[in-house]
Automatic annotation (TrEMBL):
Highest taxon of source: Bacteria
A GO MF term: NADP+ binding
InterPro entries per record: GDP_Man_deHydtase, NAD(P)-bd_dom, NAD(P)-bd_dom_sf
Protein name: GDP-mannose 4,6-dehydratase
Residues covered by the NAD(P)-binding domain: 5-330
EC number per UniProt: 4.2.1.47
Keywords noted in UniProt: Lyase, NADP, Nodulation
Required cofactor(s): NADP(+)
Annotated function: Catalyzes the conversion of GDP-D-mannose to GDP-4-dehydro-6-deoxy-D-mannose.
Reactions performed catalytically: GDP-alpha-D-mannose = GDP-4-dehydro-alpha-D-rhamnose + H2O
Length: 344
């Protein structure tokens, strides 16, 4: 039985990856950080919280000595480092925290593997945010980086550290440059889930107006379940490498909004008064979307679209879920949640 260590099991990817690895017969050590109240709703939703092969361990990404103890205790064959301060806009307000957790945190693991002369294979959760200001599209493993946020810069540090430890010490250290991936387990602070949750509330008759920032941003959105399988495949490869996981399609935030309303059988019409764009529901005639400048970022990543051919050729990985299916899945899950809450 292989042993895996996942950091960030309370997050979207950590939960799906734990489910994936348990299904593949792994014993899984999974970390969460101490907080005043437990945050296990995702692993509960996936019905794995009480799985005997899932061992939950408290750990903070910024604490090197506890990282060493964690490595000693779990003695993992594979480490999937997913924990991070993941919110791009928050990283502008908290650049030091972001650098420590998202940038230096992974170095604690790489140094720990080196220090303990461990043979564990290491996966680093790198991000398409590292591409930042568009240099060329679609983005591949060789496209130049130009990060546009403290989050992107921190991820780039960790990405190059991963490559440096691979080349310097022969550590099996893989880096997955993942484009945005979403699911019903996505946090509501990210735009897709914020939208699907808002749409579900409006479909339920709430007077909510969805307040959003930049509607023109283009993102390559895939389904998180597909992407965690890609992470697993990267650590089964013959040698450590860097791979892009994406769908090779890009969609604006505005179109994601329209798709989400359509998934709830609501047609929206976009209009503007001066610079203020808004959307109206054709059914109710009411405003359902407005722009709120507080969600604009000091610097924006305008367009992401990834070329996943290397992962397809070398790992046999490809995305399985189209954006309209993903959108429907998320809207339906949010509608069901609201039904359950109202039933109480
Ligand atoms: P989430 O925001 O859903 O989860 C982040 C996880 O990190 C949570 O478990 C969180 O704990 C944990 N965490 C944050 N700070 C610390 C800390 N100081 N010590 C220990 N744990 C901490 O992110 P995702 O699951 O979406 O993303 C997983 C990884 O993949 C991240 O590294 C992200 O940057 C990267 N990534 C994600 C993409 C995406 O589209 N989802 C795309 C590309 C890369 P808590 O629950 O307590 O907050
Ligand atoms: P992103 O995801 O920054 O790409 O990072 P997010 O969903 O936060 O933003 C996507 C785009 O939508 C625009 N936007 C808004 N974003 C949020 N959060 N809230 C809004 O109200 C809103 N309105 C418009 C943003 O400006 C942006 O252009 C995600 C995270 O998962 C990272 O951890 C990961 O590395 C990258 O994806 C790839």
């Amino acid at each position: 039985m292989k042993t895996a260590l996942i950091t960030g099991v309370t997050g979207q990817d950590g939960a799906y990856l734990a489910e994936n690895l348990l299904l593949h017969g792994y014993k899984v050590y999974a970390t969460y950080r101490r907080s005043s109240s437990e945050n296990f709703w995702r692993i509960e939703a996936l019905n794995i919280l009480r799985d005997p092969n899932l061992i939950l361990v408290q750990h903070d990404m910024t604490d090197f000595s506890s990282t060493l103890r964690l490595l000693d205790r779990a003695s993992p064959d594979e480490i999937y480092n997913l924990a991070a301060q993941t919110h791009v806009q928050v990283s502008f307000d908290q650049p030091f925290t972001t650098a420590q957790i998202t940038g230096i945190g992974p170095l604690n693991f790489l140094e720990g593997i080196r220090e303990r002369k461990a043979s564990a294979r290491y996966y680093q959760a790198s991000s398409a945010e590292m591409f930042g200001l568009v240099q060329s599209t679609p983005q591949t493993e060789t496209t130049p980086f130009y990060p546009r946020s403290p989050y992107g810069v921190s991820k780039l540090f960790a990405h190059w550290m991963t490559i440096n430890y691979r080349e310097s010490y022969g550590i099996f250290a893989a880096s997955g440059i993942l484009f945005n991936h979403e699911s019903p387990l996505r946090g509501k602070e990210f735009v897709t889930r914020k939208i699907t949750h808002g749409v579900a509330q409006i479909a339920h008759g709430s007077e909510t107006i969805l307040r959003l920032g930049n509607l023109n941003a283009l993102r390559d959105w895939g389904y998180a379940k597909d992407y965690v399988e890609g992470m697993r495949l990267m650590l089964q490869a013959d040698s450590p490498d860097t791979f892009v996981l994406a769908t090779n399609k890009t969609t604006s935030v505005r179109d994601f909004v329209t798709l989400s309303f359509a998934a709830a059988d609501i047609d929206v019409e976009w209009s503007s008064s001066g610079v203020n764009e808004f959307a109206i529901s054709r059914q109710s005639g009411k405003r359902v979307v407005e722009i709120d400048p507080t969600f604009f970022r000091p610097a924006e990543v305008d367009a992401l679209i990834g070329d996943y051919s290397k992962a397809e050729n070398m790992l046999g990985w490809r995305p399985t879920t189209k954006l309209n299916e993903l959108c429907r899945l998320m809207v339906e899950a949010d509608l069901q949640r609201l039904h359950r809450e109202r039933g109480r």
